[in-house]
Design a protein that fits this description.
Helix content: 10-25%
Radius of gyration: 23 Å
Distance between the termini: 46 Å
Shape: elongated
Number of helices: 1
Order of helices and strands: HEEEEEEE
Strand content: over 45%
Number of strands: 7
Largest sheet: 4 strands, antiparallel
Structural class: alpha+beta
Length: about 100
């Protein structure tokens, strides 16, 4: 048995090290997110799972071609909160949610 003690100690330390570096669900990036268009020209993001924060983004194309693209973004919001922004009446090119854990 004394010869096995160092091996058991190594197994316990290795297992403890793996548990320490394995991410838990508590550190999961926001998920189960939705994008919603609401009252005149407002877009929102809402995430229901994970932790961290999310932010709604949008790119619009100005009606004058020489102006080009218009970036629009909301504020950072925690999971369970809403990130929203209003936007001007131009053509929507892209809408997405940025996430950070």
């Amino acid at each position: 048995m004394p010869k096995l003690a160092p091996m058991f100690a190594a197994i316990v330390l290795t297992t403890a090290g793996l548990v320490a570096v394995t991410p838990s669900g508590a550190w999961a990036v926001p998920s189960d997110c939705t994008i919603t268009f609401t009252a005149p020209r407002v877009v929102q993001s809402y995430c229901t799972s994970g932790t961290g924060e999310h932010k709604i983004h949008m790119t619009l194309r100005h009606f004058l071609p020489e102006v080009g693209l218009i970036p629009v973004e909301g504020q950072w919001a925690p999971v369970g909160g809403v990130s929203s922004t209003g936007y001007p009446p131009h053509t929507i090119e892209n809408v997405w949610i940025e996430k950070r854990g």
